[in-house]
Amino acid sequence: MSLDMLARTAYTEDHEAFRQTVRRFMQEEIAPHAAEWAEAGIVPKSIWPKAGELGLLCPTVPEEYGGLGLDFGYNAIVDEESAYNGRAATGFSLQSDIVVNYIVAYGSEEQKRHWLPKMVSGEVITAIAMTEPGTGSDLQGIRTTARKDGNHYVINGSKTYITNGQNADLVLVCCKTDTEIEPKWKGVSIVLVEANREGFKRGRNLDKIGQDEADTSELFFEDVRVPITNCLGEEGKGFIYLMSELPQERLSIAVSCQAAAQRAFDDTVEFVRDRKAFGKPVIDFQNTRFVLADLKTKLQVGWAHLDWALARHLRRELTPEEGAAAKLWHTDLQWEVVDKCLQLHGGAGYMNEYPIARAWRGARVSRIFGGTNEIMKELIGRKL
User: Fold this and answer.
1) Which of 113, 233, 287, 344 minimizes the number of CB atoms within 10 Å of its CB?
2) Predicted model pTM
């Protein structure tokens, strides 16, 4: 099965034509190297310009800044095909679905003209540094500071669990430009830090349970000086900016998780057709068919919900709690699918040589990043 066999309502013919380009790239340039990159613990930077040349990076960037000026549906197709056919966490979605939005929406004209064309082409890889060693989902509690010194900020602090941390050329750093103001969120700003700045250091590429190919890093800032003009938008508005972009970030996660769950299901159907037990294919056992029937039904519901959420987002109507609900539901679904599919593989499912094992390990983080699912429930519950 492939994703274009599903009855989708969110996409136009142009979207689907774009899907074929993305799919070829994922099948030819990403999937064959997934195991190699997982062993290395990083996706090579050389793959980014190849993706940029085909328009896979930041397709929503306006044409005057080197982009294609398309809608988020094109991003979603890259996310789906990456999860289904690429089977590797490339870091593309962080750049295209999350970081670029901040620069487009809040960047100065100079910042946009300097950075956006390079992000579209893949010349520049970006990261966003929110999480700190002692601070998870509570961004008001960050301790990294940016102190004014003349016409510069001097940044001190550390960040952890930063996607694209080893490869990043530019980091959007969430920091406190005012440590005294109350409430604390009013003191949060986002500052652009180039990786070649003196005092910026990368820590280790963190050893994770899954998604081994994704470079996830510690970052350190020791008296890093950047011009005050590197502040993204208005000083003290960083927390507001971060909150405004969360619905798309969480929808992006939901898209990838739904596609990854579908791939795990499709792989498992193929496996149980071929694998025999007690003289007959495993799929001939009622338990196997019932488990798969249940999962297929939930996947069907998931695709319908995803199209609903995508349609609302394309009309700029997706609310923060709806984005949170999408993240919550689709990440939970992904975990249920990969866990039950691994069980149907029997002992083979515990072997890393089988895709289901890697899918299972990679899925565990989905209920953590982008805000834990417990936080998603809290956000949804506040609007009841």
Assistant:
1) 287
2) 0.94
Alpha helices in 130-237 (DSSP H): none
**What tokens does 175 get?**
């920091």
The angle at the Cα of 200, spanning 92 to 369, to the nearest 5 degrees, equals 40
Q: What pLDDT band is residue 179 in, cutting at 50, 70 and 90?
A: confident
- Domain coordinates of the chain in residue numbers? 3-124, 127-236, 240-382
By the 8 A CB rule, do 189 and 146 touch?
yes
Q: Give per-residue pLDDT as tens, 139-167.
A: 777 899 999 999 999 999 999 999 999 99
Q: How far apart, in Å, do the first and last CA atoms of the chain sit? A: 39
Q: State the pairing for strand pair 126-129/170-176.
A: parallel
Superfamily of domain 240-382: Butyryl-CoA Dehydrogenase, subunit A, domain 3 (1.20.140.10)
Report CA-CA distances (Å) from 220 to 132, 144, 157, 223. 10, 10, 6, 10
For 176, the token pair is 């406190």
Q: Where are the beta strands (DSSP E) in the chain?
A: 126-129, 145-149, 152-163, 170-176, 188-194, 200-205, 216-227, 276-277, 280-281
DSSP three-state, residue 231: strand
> What is the rounded CA–CA span in Å between residue 217 and residue 238?
22
What average pLDDT does range 19-45 have in this prediction?
A: 96
User: What's the pLDDT tens digit per position in 63-103?
Assistant: 999 999 999 999 999 999 999 999 899 999 999 999 999 99
Do 258 and 303 form a contact (C-beta atoms < 8 A)? yes
For domain 3-124, the question of CATH label 1.10.540.10 is answered with: yes
Residue 210: partners with Cβ closer than 8 Å, 6 or more residues away: 358, 360, 361, 362, 363, 364, 365
With left for phi above 0 and alpha for psi between -120 and 50, is residue 55 left, alpha or beta?
left
DSSP state of 30: I
Q: Which CATH class name applies to 127-236?
A: mainly beta
Which token pair is 275? Answer: 């694998």
Instruction: Give the Cβ contact number of residue 31 at 10 Å.
Output: 16
Residues marked active site are found at 249
Provide DSSP, 352-380: TTSHHHHHHHHHGGGGTTTS-HHHHHHHH
3-state SS assignment for residue 120: helix
In terms of Cα–Cα distance, which of 1, 23, 87, 10 is closest to 292?
1
